[in-house]
Specification:
Chain A is an alpha/beta fold. In chain B, strands 3, 4, 6, 8, 9, 11, 13, 14, 16, 18 and 20 form an 11-stranded mixed sheet that branches. Chain B has one domain. In chain B, strand 1 and strand 2 form a beta hairpin. The chains are: A alpha/beta, B alpha/beta.
Chain lengths: 260, 483
């Protein structure tokens, strides 16, 4: 589904600031991946670059979705293909209701994908089902997007949006951080219900804790702009116990290797 | 193209009403002096007291200075180079046409192009229209139907002829002829405008609307509108404005007076889309307007809603004097500036009566190299016990080269009064746009959604039919290369 090949990325305004330095990653449908790593290792950047954020420039490598490069596509065109990003810091849009935003988003994507658009009443019914997935009340739909939401509500809203838009590939950027244990369970439960054999989910996270509720097929560790190690769930447990230091050596070895 | 560039180009939406209509005008000399004023009055066949009104205003005007306190920069118009009267040559007897067949088909077509068909059967149900082309009212629809309810809706020129007692009593009673520089100029040379009279115990059965069109390149537009609502009556009135694209600036100096008697309610909405000049600030309308409402009776209410998107310079403060006890003044405003536009707009809420209440919601959106200022005064007189004001002024910036300013003036002479003022400034962030794009919307739709959300509290105050129009207008104004 998604193939990231030797991806090098710098900040658009400051090309000397290189963030990703050769990321390789393949994600197939039906898989759940977790990407872990210390602060500043490039995890969030990777999610944003896949979604098409223009603050970053790809200097080398490629991103293929369903076999085609998406590097030239605008963020909305990538969304139309079924790529979703749950934001680490969901953005507030005052005066625009969740319902309004989501119906417009849903219908835009449906239209691009040749599916039927929903009228306001049909949409309300459709969205009501999805609300249950994240245990939210109907009033939620009439509130302005993320405005005045608590941290936990914002994260739940991201998963709710994901459920409504029903993407093929979802990047969840630290969706678990800032959640108390109850909220974490709700969010994890929502994600589990959305994930199926036709979809793929990538969780970017600092903590092993969410992986107790969502079992990943693969765990990757990012260090200094590269995937330093990949493994299964046990790798996450080891990271929780031992931190990232034992991996840094491996990473720096390959950095040196490249320079040579 | 970076998102910032996209944002900036997006706000440069094309002006769709910039065409000119080819009509023949009556000859009229440029410039201003007593003879010109007498000539205007003569051509309009006005009674002596109106001529006197004009001459007194002119006398005052000559002794006044143009104000320099607004936060805008422009070259003072050359008042001797403006044509103060502009009328198209009439067919037949030169009187205002009784039926549409007597109206120049070019003009009918113009209004048609603007989306304002003058044929009653083509119009939105429930809206009567007065069409003002340059300085004269061309045609007023649904007069008969309104007449049945006792409502008078006609041009002010007709009102002077047919209802002189009403005009004499109220004209200049809210905005005195020497009120300010541009109001004095208007009082001297006012051309046409709308007149509305709603008798006692009457709810006006239709929305009333005036559509102002400046066509003549040489002429200024000096319309004057007067709305009177007697005891226990109500009216909702809307004005729309457009003008062709010319290289030269044109002067528009209007006066609007509203009078609400006991328990009366006037809702006045404006969608102003005068030509705003090109990207470099060449051309566009100078919009210097005095609008004031007087809640003369107890429990009366005056509400101003404005969506200001056009004009090179806007200088306008729709105000309410709340004299009657328990009267209410409201001001809801969206002002959008782009390119080199400058707007200094806001309101004055003058609390005189007891328990008077005012609300101010102002939303300024600046883009390009424009400058957008809110200026608002809340004044509470010593006898206004229990007066309350609530003000919110929010500014939104699009891009890095525009400016937003807020100048609130609060004077309270009564310790029981409560005045609240909130202000905020935000920037349409690339993050907001990225977020909405990630949800599948293109840049145009994303910006449109953000801006509409920002203005929602104001847009919901517009009459339904016009809310859609305003929504579209904001879209056009803020749309660009992508759409």
């Amino acid at each position: 589904m998604l193939e990231i090949k030797d991806l090098h990325v710098c900040v658009e305004e400051d090309p000397s600031e290189k963030i990703l330095k050769g990321v390789n990653l393949t994600i197939n449908k039906g898989e759940i991946h977790a990407i872990m790593g210390p602060n500043g290792s490039g995890k969030s950047t990777l999610s944003k670059v896949v979604a098409g954020h223009e603050a970053y420039e790809v200097t080398q490598g490629d991103i293929l979705f369903e076999g085609e490069s998406i590097l030239d596509l605008d963020p909305d065109e990538r969304a139309h293909k079924g790529i979703f990003l749950a934001f680490q810091y969901p953005v507030e849009v005052p005066g625009v209701t969740n319902k309004n935003l989501l119906r417009q988003a849903y219908n835009t994507i449906a239209k691009e994908q040749g599916r039927e658009e929903l009228d306001p009443i049909e949409f309300e019914d459709y969205a009501a089902e999805k609300l249950e997935l994240v245990d939210m009340k109907k009033e939620f739909m009439d509130r302005s997007v993320n405005a005045g939401f608590s941290g936990g509500e914002k994260k739940r809203n991201e998963i709710f949006q994901m459920a409504v838009l029903n993407p093929r590939l979802s990047f969840l950027d630290e969706t678990d951080s800032g959640l108390d244990i109850d909220a974490l369970k709700i969010v994890a439960n929502g994600i589990n219900q959305i994930a199926d054999e036709d979809r793929a989910v990538v969780m970017v996270t600092h903590y092993q804790r969410i992986l107790d509720y969502i079992e990943p097929d693969y765990v990757h560790v990012m260090i200094d702009g590269r995937i330093a190690k990949s493994g299964d769930k046990d790798l996450a447990v080891k990271l929780e116990d031992q931190g990232y230091d034992w991996l840094s050596d491996t990473a720096s070895v390959s950095v040196n290797g490249e320079q040579n | 193209m970076s998102e910032t560039e996209a944002l900036e180009s997006m706000v440069g939406g094309e002006y769709k009403y910039g065409f000119t209509t080819d009509v023949e005008y009556e000859e009229f000399p440029k410039g201003i002096n007593e003879d010109i004023i007498r000539e205007i009055s003569r051509r309009k066949n006005e009674p002596e007291w109106v001529t006197e009104f004009r001459l007194e205003a002119y006398e005052k005007w000559t002794q006044m200075e143009e104000p320099d306190w607004p936060n805008v920069e422009y070259e003072t118009p050359d008042f001797d180079n403006v044509q103060y009267y502009s009328a198209t040559k009439k067919k037949g007897n030169g009187k205002k046409p009784e039926s549409l067949e007597d109206v120049d088909p070019e003009i009918i077509e113009t209004y048609e192009k603007l989306g304002i068909p003058l044929q009653e059967q083509k119009q939105l149900q429930g809206i009567a229209v007065d069409a003002v082309f340059d300085s004269e009212s061309i045609f007023t629809t649904f007069k008969e139907k309104l007449g049945e309810a006792g409502v008078i809706f006609c041009s002010i020129s007709e009102a002077i002829q047919n209802h002189p007692e009403l005009v004499k009593e109220y004209m200049g009673s809210v905005v005195p002829k020497g009120d300010n520089f541009y109001a004095a100029l208007n009082s001297a040379v006012f051309s046409d405008g709308s007149f509305v009279y709603v008798p006692k115990d009457t709810i006006c059965p239709m929305e009333l609307s005036t559509y102002f069109r400046i066509n003549n390149m040489q002429s200024g537009q000096f319309e004057r509108t007067l709305i009177i609502c007697e005891d226990n009556s109500q009216v909702s009135y809307l004005e729309g404005c457009t003008a062709p694209m010319y290289q030269e600036n044109q002067l528009h100096a209007a006066v609007v007076e509203l009078v609400a008697l006991e328990n009366a309610e006037i809702k006045y909405s404006t969608i102003q889309n005068w030509y705003s000049g090109d990207e470099e600030g060449q051309g566009g309308i100078f919009n210097f307007v005095t609008k004031r409402g007087h809640c003369r009776g107890d429990n009366s209410k005056i509400s101003w809603t404005q969506v200001e998107t056009g004009s090179a310079i806007t200088w306008k403060y729709p105000s309410v004097i709340m004299q009657g006890d328990n009267s209410i003044g409201e001001f809801f405003s969206v002002a959008v500036t782009n390119n080199r536009q400058q707007a200094d707009t806001g309101t004055k809420m003058i609390h005189v009566g007891k328990n008077t209440k005012s609300t101010i919601i102002s939303k300024g959106i600046s883009a390009g190299k424009s400058n957008n200022s809110y200026r608002g005064q809340v004044k509470i007189s010593p006898r206004a016990d229990g007066a309350q004001n609530y003000s919110v002024c929010d500014s939104m910036l699009i891009g890095q080269t525009c400016g937003a300013h807020t100048f609130p003036y609060i004077e309270s002479a009564n310790p029981t009064a409560k005045v609240e003022h909130e202000a905020s400034t935000s920037r349409v962030g690339e993050d907001q746009i990225f977020y909405l794009q990630q949800r599948g919307m293109d840049e145009d739709d994303a910006i449109s959604l953000i801006v509409n959300g920002f203005c929602k509290e104001v847009l919901k105050e517009l009459p339904m039919e016009f809310a859609v129009e305003a929504d579209k207008l904001l879209g056009i104004k803020l749309e660009g290369s992508v759409g």
